[in-house]
Amino acid sequence: MKLLELKLENFKGIKEFTLNTEGEDVEVLGTNETGKSTLFDAFLWLLFGRDSRNQANAQVKTLKEGNPIHGLDHSVEALLELADGKNIKLKKIYKEKWEKKRGQSEAQFSGHTTTYEINDRPDIKQKEFNEKISEIAGDEQVFRLVTDPLYFNEGLTWKERRKLIFEVCGDIPPEEIIEATPELEGIEQEYMDVLLPGDYEEAQKALAAKKKKTNQRLEEIRVRVDENNKNMPKEVNFNEGELKTIQKQIDELKEKRSQAFYTGYDEELNNKITELKQEISDLREQARKEFEEQGEELRKARNDAQYTQDHLKSLINRNKNRLQEIAEEKAKVEDNLNKLAREWELLYHQEFELNAEDDDTHCPTCGQMLPYDEVHEAQQKAEENFKKKKAEDLEENEQAGK
Q1: CB 81 within 8 A of CB 100
Q2: Spatial distance between the Cα atoms of 276 and 335, rounded to a whole number of angstroms
Q3: Could you tell me which of 289, 350, 365, 382 has the fewest CB atoms within 10 Å of its CB?
Q4: Torsion region of 91: left, alpha or beta (phi above 0 gives left; psi -120 to 50 gives alpha)
């Protein structure tokens, strides 16, 4: 597609201007605020409805002291030569709508309307116009990339730029990142599995979900520890009723023994007292053992829960550090890919130019005119060497980006 002619009328302060290119390359020169960018804005607005800064709602009307001048039609028209040699004329007109409502003496401004023309046909719908633009200009993003050197950095988000670089240069497997980064050596297989697909956003989401689940487990463990602490017995719980009954029997026996002191020694009574004392001792020992066993189980459960909690906290901190290292390494890789992409762009657009030595047609010794064949052969060889060097540089750049 070649631009033959571009006409602007009341577009961004330009009352009327015609750019005749006749399909050739042109240079637009001028001081600031003289309309250089306006020409490009007009061409992009005609094709895609956006200006060079990718703004769809950019002001196209002519302003006076900051306010739009009413009653003007704002239009851009382009004459293009297509790949098949045929010409096509495209025109877009931005108009004000004025309506006179019942009971009003004057029409009131009510908005704007846009009309489209193809080869002077005024009845073109927007859908038909856009389909024709897609047919002759192709994908808008690709068109912007090849026509606007600033579009890649200023018109695309960082995610779109990264996606485009990966499409051109290829992605980098996580294994290579980990292999080139000693700090990531020994990363757990479960996190390696998450990174393997190469979708870092999905990997971050998966690890965030694991972190949330781990925090929930920590909270559950904390609750269990609190419950175990509350359930630990503070003192031995004797059967008070049984002890009182036995103590009463002892007191009665002591009373009987005291009476027996005056009547004579009662061996059977002493044996009974000894048995009851031993029974009390056995009850106390049994309660002590039960307390110690229960306390040991609770202490073990608390220690296990504390160990699990500390281990999970350590695991979370370690994985946080590793994710940070991965993010930093990824940023370095993206910066390198951006640098390689810029170098590739410069290499790709290099053109062969004869230097003074190759273009000299006179013998450096005697000053006589050299034969045409020798001059032509030398120039041809210089061009072949340039192309070979350019191909090698491009290949080296592409290999570095893989």
Answers
A1: no
A2: 88
A3: 365
A4: beta
Q: Packing angle between helix 126-137 and helix 36-48, nearest 10 degrees?
A: 110
How far apart are the two ends of the chain, measured CA to CA in Å? 33
Residue 264's pLDDT is 47
197-216 per-position pLDDT tens digit: 455 666 667 777 877 887 78
Phi, psi of 52 (to 5 degrees): -70, -20
Least confident of 196-200, 243-247, 354-358, 397-401: 196-200
Residue 82 vs residues 11, 22, 48, 133, 183: alpha-carbon distances, Å:
25, 13, 18, 12, 56
Residue with tokens 């790949």: 83
What digits encode the pLDDT tens for the residues 33-61?
778 888 989 999 999 888 888 888 878 88
Kindly list the distances between the CA atom of residue 227 and the CA atoms of 214, 296, 298, in Å, as whole numbers in the listed order: 20, 15, 10
Q: What are the tokens at 95?
A: 């108009």
Q: Is the pTM of this model over 0.70?
A: no
Please say whether the beta carbons of 256 and 266 come within 8 A. Answer: yes
- Dist CA 384 CA 4 (whole Å): 34
Residue 199 has what pLDDT?
58
Query: What is the C-alpha separation between 252 and 258, in angstroms, rounded?
Result: 10
